[in-house]
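Lab notebook, bench 4. The sequencing result for the construct came back, and we need a structural model before the next group meeting so we can plan mutations. Quick request posted to the team channel:

Model the 3D structure of this chain.
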Amino acid sequence: MSLPFVVALAPAAPESFAPLAGLAEVRFPGDSTQFGEEQIRRFQKEHPVSGLIVPGEFPIVPALLEDLPDLQVIANTAAGYNNLPLAELSRRRIWGTNTPDAFTAATADATLGLILALARGIAAGDAYVRTGRWEQEGPQGDRWSGMGLSGKTLGIIGFGKIGQAVARRAEAFGMTVIFHRRGATGDSRQRDFARLLEESDVVVVLVPLSAETRHLIDARAFDLMRPGTRFVNVSRGPVVNEQDLVDALQSGRLAGAALDVFEAEPKVHPALLGMKQVVLTPHLGGATREARHQARIEAATNVAAALLGRRPPGALNQFD
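Done. Here's the predicted structure in token form:
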């Protein structure tokens, strides 16, 4: 009896799918490319696909599900899952899963890196040295004086596992941490949305993308921030109205911004590209080798459970 087929959309070492050994045959790209929808459909014609292992930015559309009648599970190698139509998956009795813990430490580390880069002008300083201008112009006095973190207030919007990990790191730098999240926690650091924006020297967004959080940070939010605030987004691009962010930066209300995600990713608002007070990174928040390997292991574990007729540990939906 042949084993069920599982398609992993991104290239990875075979050991990343060890939980599926003996349970399924895993197919994945052998180079730096990724499978796309049409490649999956061509594969389905030869080998019925029972499982998909996908990156969190790969959109699962109903038309693709229609072409995969044997599909039992879609496993995101990401904490986010706005790419998964969970109601439709439940209707079709397909599990949707994520890996909520794999990227926590890596994303928290990257967030602190962005805060430091923004506060101390690290990216701009690097570019300045590379142009040869430092050698030509010599000492610059206070030109490179940045903001120290000790004693400053970090406001974290979204206080799940990643937000809490960021808080621990920020407190090690001497920052005062406050946060906003839905529901009362009894924590004295909790603030309502407006008060957090008014009190913070640095604002970090760490919420998932949903109908409620789309454009959560817009012109009204930027107007509530104190002049000179620094803003960091490592959640999802559409959480921020990018044009409103550009306006706040151009007006001088914001001292700077660091963005790892973008509203029309991978397209970036052209005005941001020329701003020296802005740090831009290509959605690398969770991108460590260790985190990606762990995410694939967890995704494969989710697929293995589904193929065995069990509820996956990372299940996001439910059906009878």
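The chain has a mean pLDDT of 93.
Will bring this to the meeting.
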